[in-house]
């Protein structure tokens, strides 16, 4: 009986063991099913949130703006711009071979991703303890760097995989490589190897040598780190590695590699500095007002004189010290030849050339023009003595009064009482009307402090006032753009010069030119600006030395200079329009 019972117990236990195994299998299957459904659901959500796969083949970047100077030379490119489309079939083989050799040597044999490269990258990164090696294929890079953001999110990685599979099924390997070469971001915001080739070496991608091809391929890993401008030696060192890989993979022989290595050198192209950024920002605003929203790349032909711009940029920092400065230069017809809005664009993008500040005595010519129109001449006698209008009783800068003097002397010494007396004599409305005729009356306050420059205006506006005087009294309309074309050369916009008209009579202009010439003589406030070719100028200093100005002219340009603090705090008591601004003017035009 004992043996029978033992067999019965075993038969009773066996169904229990089978039942447990079955439950484990069912549980695992359900877990797998739930996980698969979750993953599929997640992938589906990511897929439906993606843009149209066909639509992403079209370029969606903001239109590029290529800025040209007055001579037609390119000075800067805003936004990404692409070069001429290239392909494996049209390029010399060594161009695309350099890319494949360093970026994805098994590109033509693996699928959307290279399993061996990924496995190797995982092992090496684990051994080194940090991310040091990548394993992305060219197909993945095409999806990641061109179509997607650089956010390190799981959703972006899923999108990358989806796009990679889609690319491999939609295009052949050569077409994917073409897409990569034409869209990859490289030096200075340019896209595509043709744009980089033209910027770096001044030639089309179809003309690249083996050495140049290696230097362009060197940037693919990290365009900033291996930039031929910022880090030319790093670019060259990596290019040597690429040449070695090309030999190892049979694309070139050792002699070709040695010849190419001897040709490696810093790219002769020029880096995109900040020398023109205040200018191009200003022009961009002007461009929007002229043609509105842009839907294609454009070439903007401007009035900029790069030599003059470079001269101003080099001169100003050495004079202003810890202060800020700005300068505007224009031709007599209103063409703006240079604009510097600060001492360092990288530190501050605020354009002080278009900021409103108090012009101080630089406003006084408007008062004197009113007097000259009413019959006075430079030799007319005026009296410099304390004078008040109600509670307003400003003193001369040095609190010294000269008594009876000529109008010319009063102007040259920039006394305060005389323009106030002239305004009282001819009426404040007459002065404000003159300012309106010269283009600066719109925002001036109707008070006597305006006569001494208490109402704010921009350096650009003030320089334009003086341009009218030195343009024989004819109207001047400042402009920065002469023509805009698309990439095919079609004219999108062309400046239509405005009709000019006489604002000031020839006699008034002649007398005012004489007064401005006296300012730069040895006894004038602007004598430090005097040098060969300078025909006149005017200083200006606002209350408490917060702003210092000098506007002067040669036979070719009118140049305005401002110095001050962004927070409107006073500068040193010895800083006036006749010191730093006049000295800057002198060093620019000498």
Short description:
The protein is an alpha+beta fold. It has two domains: 80-263, Penicillin binding protein transpeptidase fold, CATH 1.10.3810.10; 311-589, Beta-lactamase (3-Layer(aba) Sandwich), CATH 3.40.710.10. 44% of the residues lie in helices and 12% in strands.
Report on the architecture of this protein.
With 590 residues, this protein is of the alpha+beta class. It has 2 domains: 80-263, Biosynthetic peptidoglycan transglycosylase-like (Penicillin binding protein transpeptidase fold); 311-589, DD-peptidase/beta-lactamase superfamily (Beta-lactamase, 3-Layer(aba) Sandwich). It has helices at residues 2-49, 93-103, 115-128, 138-147, 154-170, 173-183, 193-201, 210-218, 232-248, 254-263, 277-291, 306-320, 364-373, 407-412, 417-426, 428-437, 459-470, 506-519, 580-589; strands spanning 65-68, 74-78, 81-82, 190-191, 298-302, 324-330, 336-340, 356-357, 381-384, 403-406, 457-458, 481-486, 491-494, 536-541, 547-553, 558-564. The chain has a 5-stranded mixed beta sheet with strand order 2-1-5-12-13, with helices on one face. A 5-stranded antiparallel beta sheet has the order 7-6-16-15-14, with helices on both faces. Helix 12 runs antiparallel to helix 19 (580-589).
